[in-house]
Design brief:
This protein is α+β, with helices and mostly antiparallel strands. The protein has seven helices and 22 strands.
Length: 374
């Protein structure tokens, strides 16, 4: 169908009037879209933290520190305060480091330095103060000096010297009930002598004042020899041989026979003497009647009143007095004077069974070997 000229003109006029309105509307929509896009791209999360306290996380378009402090209600920056930006997984963090004053003492002077959290080494460098590995820093060089804590540098000087020193002979006491009748008696076993050491010392001076002296080396030139003395010790055994534990004056196990109220005498012999059994005689060997107590038997011997303890001993010898019954047992001593001092003592003898004695044979053999070597 053909459109008349009049109708075409009417349509043209309608379009002429509508197009400006639609163009304006479309333009505004585009501008709004661009504005929203820009705004969404500018918004980001920021954490604002303050060393004086406070920490907030906000969604903002601001990047200026002053604006961010204002938005979070954080006090404004002071003259020497600093801000530090760091990245976080979903944004950024603005750290406000407040300035404070540290009192630095070094070389007899104290001076202030302003910092926002420097280490001790950094503060000294800031003041142009040098130090070496001997000097002492409090806090340590790599530690941040907190607000309210002074920094102290102490100059340390070491001075070394060497001198010879005598080492006095020590006194070593060996307790024994051997002297139960003369408890103030002592027996000298070894005369001691002083030693000589070369000793190196280091004196420590802090800020010019002596602080301490340290021993850093000692070399023995002449060995000290101790003085060894045998002294009275209540119920301390004369013999060094061992056996079962003693409770209430008797072995706790393995006792095969007990002989109470028996007459014990004392005797001595030459240093290389052997008993009738062929065993070398030492403290801890005794003479018996082998028909009563066989050679090699291990026994424990103590006085009836418990004041004297001969200890564990082996049956190693015999004698006429034991065979004819005038004495039950003869205790061996290493000196004649000891045998006289303890001539006759009423004793109780605990004889151990063979099985129990065998448990201590190896240890007692080692003790015997040491005694014979001394």
């Amino acid at each position: 169908m053909a459109v008349s000229v009049k109708t075409k003109e009417h349509i043209r006029r309608r379009l002429a009037l509508a197009l400006p309105k639609w163009g304006a509307l479309l333009g505004g929509a585009a501008a709004l879209a661009l504005s929203i896009l820009f705004t969404s791209q500018a918004l980001h999360y920021v954490i604002v933290s303050d060393t004086d306290g406070g920490r907030q996380r906000i969604l903002t378009a601001a990047d200026d520190p002053d604006a961010l402090l204002d938005q979070t209600g954080t006090p404004p920056l002071g003259e020497h305060d600093e801000v530090v930006w760091t990245q976080t997984p979903d944004g950024e963090e603005l750290q406000v480091r407040r300035a404070y004053t540290v009192q630095v003492t070094a070389d007899g002077q104290t001076q202030p330095v302003i910092t926002t959290g420097a280490t001790a080494a950094e503060l000294l460098a800031q003041l142009g103060i040098s130090y070496d590995e001997n000097d002492r820093l409090t806090p340590a060089a790599d530690e941040v000096v907190p607000d309210g804590t002074p920094l102290v540098l102490q100059r340390v000087e070491y001075r070394e010297y060497t001198q010879d020193e005598a080492v006095p002979a020590e006194r070593q006491e060996i307790p024994t009930s051997l002297f139960y009748r003369k408890q103030t008696k002592e027996m000298l076993l070894q005369q001691g002598s002083d030693g000589l050491d070369t000793v190196t010392y280091r004196e420590v001076y802090i800020d010019g004042e002596w602080a301490e002296t340290q021993e850093i080396d000692r070399v023995t030139q002449v060995a000290m020899v101790p003085t060894i003395v045998k002294v009275y010790g209540e119920q301390a055994p004369v013999s060094e041989f061992v056996g079962p534990e003693i409770e209430d004056g008797a072995p706790v196990e393995g006792v095969a026979a007990v002989y109470s109220g028996q007459r014990a005498t004392g005797y001595s012999a030459s240093a290389t003497a052997k008993g009738a059994s062929g065993r070398r005689l030492t403290y801890g060997t005794v003479a018996i009647n082998p028909n009563v107590i066989p050679y090699g038997s291990l026994m424990y011997i103590t006085s009836d009143d418990g004041r004297f303890v001969y200890g564990y001993a082996y049956a190693a010898d015999t004698g006429t007095a034991m065979m004819d019954g005038r004495a039950f047992i003869d205790l061996y001593y290493e000196t004649y004077s000891e045998s006289v001092d303890n001539a006759v003592i009423p004793v109780t003898v605990y004889v151990l069974d063979d099985e129990t004695a065998a448990q201590y044979k190896a240890e007692n053999d080692a003790i015997l070997e040491r005694l014979l070597a001394d």
